[in-house]
Design brief:
Structural class: alpha/beta
Protein name: Zinc-type alcohol dehydrogenase-like protein
CATH class of the largest domain: Alpha Beta
Shape: globular
Number of domains: 2
Number of strands: 16
Helix content: 25-40%
Largest sheet: 7 strands, mixed
Pfam families: ADH_N, ADH_zinc_N_2
InterPro entries: ADH-like_N, ADH_Zn_typ-1, ER, GroES-like_sf, NAD(P)-bd_dom_sf, Quin_OxRdtase/zeta-crystal_CS, Zinc-ADH_QOR/CCCR
Subcellular location: Cytoplasm
Organism: Paenibacillus zeirhizosphaerae
CATH topology of the largest domain: Quinone Oxidoreductase, Chain A, domain 1
Order of helices and strands: EEEHEEEEEHHEHEHEHEHEEHHEHE
Length: 343
């Protein structure tokens, strides 16, 4: 019996994005769901920095195509025998697991515990822009920084979001504002500054200049929370100076340099990392929290409290367009998200 095939985009070699073989169109066997897996028909995908970091040049080759992609919106095609949360025909969105093949394929397997019901008011392209950035922003704010969901608790409290115009920053800005915090975003260009203000930031400062003088200029000596979404080591001293005593700093950006944690000691500052793949990577007992938070994001979107951050949509989903999307992200100057729609 002939096995059913599907289109996908993958790589055998880790090459610069200018090389046409850095991402190629391939045909793979259509997978079958087992356990708590859903088989999802992929309607739209979006691209994140993790995609080009995984794809970046390195001295090894794959014997079978490696498929990237950790943002999907689609329709459940089949469910595994142990599934309880979704049924065939359900519209879903999710980021998936870094430990498994990514979503840049016509069909994709994903554990239902890290999947949410797609916002009903968004199309698939708009929904595909949200999962990875929403999970990262949500976990950073509420799990890592322990920010309250109660607006009354956050009255008078401030958060500085470094890199507020990017994918995660665009969601974090909206969630922080929704939670009642005073939001200070960083941006460096007129278009990114405008974008951050449009998303609800109360103030915008420039991340290329010292933070404290800029904060003082808008009326703040220090901030209660810092969320770093860009170059942890570059901003380390600025963050240490700007954070309030007993404040909290969270970063999502790994560093090649040693960080001087002693800078945080006298203020008894908490520093914490966030990686949205941790729960799925380690199969933590609370994996289902990502299902719950994605459903909550969908509710906030449908209520108009959070908006999608799609900024550019490319059609169709193929290697040529995916290479374009990777190249755009590698400039470090994208505002919002780049989405691909339709195989």
């Amino acid at each position: 019996m002939t096995k059913e095939k599907m289109k996908a985009i993958g790589l055998y070699r880790y090459l610069p994005i200018e090389n046409p073989e850095s991402l190629i169109d391939v045909e793979l066997e259509k997978p079958k769901p087992t356990g708590r897996d859903l088989l999802v028909r992929v309607n739209a995908i979006s691209v994140n920095p993790v995609d080009y970091k995984v794809r970046s040049p390195k001295g090894r080759e794959e014997s079978v195509p490696k498929v990237l992609g950790w943002d999907v919106a689609g329709v459940v095609e089949e469910v595994g025998p142990d599934c309880t949360l979704f049924r065939p025909g359900d519209e879903v969105f999710y980021a998936g697991s870094i430990m498994r093949p990514g979503g840049n394929s016509e069909f994709h397997l994903v554990d239902e515990r890290i999947v949410g019901a797609k916002p009903s008011k968004l199309d698939f392209a708009q929904a595909a822009a949200l999962p990875l950035t929403s999970i990262t922003a949500w976990e950073s704010l509420y799990d890592r920084l322990s920010i309250s969901h109660d607006k009354a608790d956050n009255a008078g409290k401030t958060i500085l979001i470094i890199g507020a115009a990017g994918g995660v920053g665009s969601i974090a800005t909206q969630l922080a504002k929704y939670s009642g915090l005073t939001v200070i975003g960083t941006a460096s260009r007129p278009e990114s500054t405008h974008w951050v203000k449009e998303l609800g930031a109360d103030y915008v400062i420039n991340h290329f200049d010292s933070f404290v003088p800029q904060l003082k200029a808008v009326g703040f000596d220090q901030v209660d929370y810092v969320l770093c979404l860009n170059s942890t080591e570059k901003h380390w001293v600025n963050m240490a100076e700007a954070i309030a005593p007993q404040g909290k700093i969270c970063s999502i950006v790994e560093t090649d340099e040693l960080l001087n944690l002693t800078l945080l000691k006298n203020k008894s500052v908490t520093f914490v990392w966030e990686l949205m793949f941790t729960r799925s990577m380690y199969q933590t007992p609370d994996m289902i929290e990502q299902h719950k938070l994605l459903n909550e994001i969908a509710r906030l979107v449908d209520e108009g409290a959070v908006r999608t951050t799609t900024n550019e949509t490319l059609t169709p989903i193929n290697a040529e367009n995916l290479r374009k999307a990777h190249a755009m992200l590698e400039t470090g100057r994208t505002v919002g998200k780049v989405v691909l729609e339709g195989f």
